[in-house]
Structure formats: structure tokens, C-alpha cells
Amino acid sequence: MKVVIPQAVVGHIGSWLRERLTVNGKILTAVVGLSGGIDSGLVALICKYHGIPLVCVNMPCHSSAWSMIRAKNLADEYGLKFMIVETTKAADLIRSQVEAGLDIEEDDISRNDLAGLYSTSRSPVLDFVAKTVRYRDDEDSSIVKGGMIVGTGNRDEDGIVRYFAKRGDGAVDLSPIADLHKSEVCQVFEWLATRLANMNGRMTIYPSARAILNAKPSADLWGGQEQYDEDELGCTYAEVEWVDEFVTDLIPSFFRRSSEQKENWIADWVRKGMVTEDQVDLIRKITAIEKSTRHKENSDIPVCRVHTAFMNEPWFE
């Protein structure tokens, strides 16, 4: 969807984050895994814009240099507290010990399983940072200890196809942008990156933010080899968004209904000329992915509702 009032979206998410991070009158630090991608970039910039204590952690693990460089450049240009914690050696040690313990060869482990290990190895880093981070409160000079892991998944990734590691980037305390589609994340990111640049006296967006906007979505877990989310999924995020919007506008509970009910509705849409054969194939594909990944869902993680909470507001069209 088109984001008509991005400032309102940023304001709502920022207020939601502040409320969730405030404990006993003190705001805890937002701990964000800053990958060099647009989703984590947006979450970090929202925290920056709202003055939320923030620490960004980049955790390369058999990753390419370019994703780390994008993350570092964004942090440098937008004044984000940033650290790099290399996890490659730790993951390799785990892998070698598991191979020895199970008496298996390197070739017996799939690339996807390795990518899962690499992603999951980052969770203890963020958890440790959240437990140990602290800052001095400017108002009363007290030391505020602790933080929360702030997730960076969007609606398409987290809510529909669940393109994340269950015990990796799925292990978060808060999900501020999980109600925004990827296209909406891009729009809000561009607005906010430009707004923050303007506040620093620049007329245009910083180069780091432009590089992130232009980059193809990638988990970057294949040892520097080219890997793109949409190639792995077999569909684009725009297609995921279209299916989600189409079926839930007609049947809000579509994804939760039985396979028989879904097929009956699809047949009805075909009879009425509402969908083409290609669109039917796409609906079935996305529906199958959603069902097969539902085990990753964690309803205990708070999600900032933007669309459903403000249906009567002209924020989207």
C-alpha cells in the first residue's frame, strides 16, 4: 500500500516503543541487530528519531563485507551507537564439534542448515548485550541498566512467509514493524532517512541510506556468495503483499481456515472472474508457505499494530 502520512506511522511506532521499553519510569535500551538491510535500518532510525536509547549490533557470520559496510556507514552518518561482534569463529567451532560428535562429513550438512546455524548464533549476542547494556540518565545521573531486543521483521517476512530462524532472528522482545509490508517499510525508511538528514542540515538523504534503499533483500548467510530472499522464497515480497491484501480484505481469517474452505473460496473467486490462473497459483503457493511455517509463530511477542489500530486514519491508501 502507499504510505500517505509516513510521519504519523513513525510517530505511532516510536510512541509504542517508548511505552514498551519503559520500566519503573526509566526507558531501557533498544538493542537492534543492524544487518545493513532496510528493515533493521528503519527500526534503528525510528529509535534515533524518538530519542530512544539505542545500541546497534552487527554480527557478521560468513557474511559478505558489503552488508557490514552498509550498516557501519548508516551508523556513522546518522549517529547511531554501533558495535561489531564477529560470530564466524564461534559458529565454525560449533559446527566442527557437531560433525565430530555425530560422525558426519561436511558435505552432509545442507547450506540452509548452515545458514540456520549462522543466524541462530547471533541470538546469544543480542541477549548478552541486552542484559549488560547501560547508560547514564541525563535527568538524574542515575545508571539505567538493561535493554530489550527489538525485532526488525516486517509483515511479509514475520507474519506470512515467516522467513526467519525460529531461534535466531525470531528471538526478540518486541516487534515494532511487523504490521508493515516490505513496500511500506521502504517508503517509511526513505521518508525518515531524509527527515533526519534534513535535521542535520542536509538537503538530501545520506549515501548510506540510499545504498540500503537500492539493495536487494538478502539474509547474507552464504559465505559471501550471492543470496537473495526472493530467489529463495520463489516469490517476491510484492507478491506476498498482494496475496495478503487480497485474501484478507475478502476473508480476514483466510489463512487460519481449513484447506477445504480456502479452495472453496478460491473456486468462487475464479467463477466470478476475480482472479487469473496465475494469481490462483500464487495464492496457493503463499498459503502453503504460511501454513508450513506457522510453527515459528510466537503470539507472545508484542507487535505494534498500525493498520488495524488506525483503520479510519488516512495513513495508507
From TrEMBL:
GO biological process entries: NAD+ biosynthetic process
Reactions mediated catalytically: deamido-NAD(+) + NH4(+) + ATP = AMP + diphosphate + NAD(+) + H(+)
Signal peptide bounds: none
CDD domains: NAD_synthase
Domain NAD/GMP synthase: 13-241
Molecular function in Gene Ontology: ATP binding; glutaminase activity; NAD+ synthase (glutamine-hydrolyzing) activity; NAD+ synthase activity
Protein name stated in the entry: NH(3)-dependent NAD(+) synthetase
